[in-house]
Amino acid sequence: GLPTFVSATPNGIMELLRRYQIKTEGKHCVVLGRSNIVGTPIAILMSRNNDTGNATVTIAHSRTKNLKEICRSADILIVAIGKTKFVTADMVKEGAVVIDVGQTRVPDKSRESGFRNVGDVDFDTVKDKCSFITYVTGGVGPMTRASLLQNTLIANQRR
Questions:
Q1: Distance (Å, whole) CA 74 – CA 129
Q2: Per-block average pLDDT, block size 10, for the chain (159 residues)?
Q3: Of 9, 38, 61, 117, which has the maximum CB count within 10 A?
Q4: Helix and strand counts by DSSP (H, E) for the chain
């Protein structure tokens, strides 16, 4: 019951799930990544008893045994592992929801900037298997920024 702030990225992911009306209740959610900033908080939020939550959550990481099988069992796969294109098509079940939190800047001579952003999911091989997948640019990032602004507004109102 105490006033608190939810980390911006996990809160943004929850809002994204709400806005796109993605059902989470009773679903198996695999969170790939265990950081204190994204992995652990999103696992807690997904398991909470509320309108966007009530999922059965498994937290996994790069050293988890049977990782492909665990990921393939996910109805919702949230990837925040920090490894470029780590999740491939053979790790995703048909119809899964895939949320790619990863963002790594890699060299790309074809771009004016000389770089492009790449996620933790191999988007091109995974996209056709999913019922929903986030883009790396324009997916979770804008939701994180919106949540950060929301937290800032709330903090100002509490002063």
A1: 13
A2: 85 96 98 96 95 95 95 98 95 98 91 92 97 92 95 91
A3: 38
A4: 5, 7
The CATH architecture assigned to 8-158 reads 3-Layer(aba) Sandwich (3.40)
DSSP 49: S
Say if residues 38 and 32 touch (Cβ distance below 8 Å): no
Q: How many CB atoms lie within 10 A of CB 39?
A: 24
Dist. CA 17–CA 15, nearest whole Å? 5
Largest CA distance in the chain: 52
Q: How many residues does the chain have?
A: 159
- pLDDT value of position 62: 86
C-alpha–C-alpha distance, residues 21 and 16, integer Å: 8
Sequence ranges of the domains in the chain = 8-158
| Helix spans in the chain (H) | 8-19, 39-47, 67-72, 123-126, 140-158
Distances (CA, A) of 33 to 63, 100, 101, 104, 158: 10, 11, 10, 15, 33
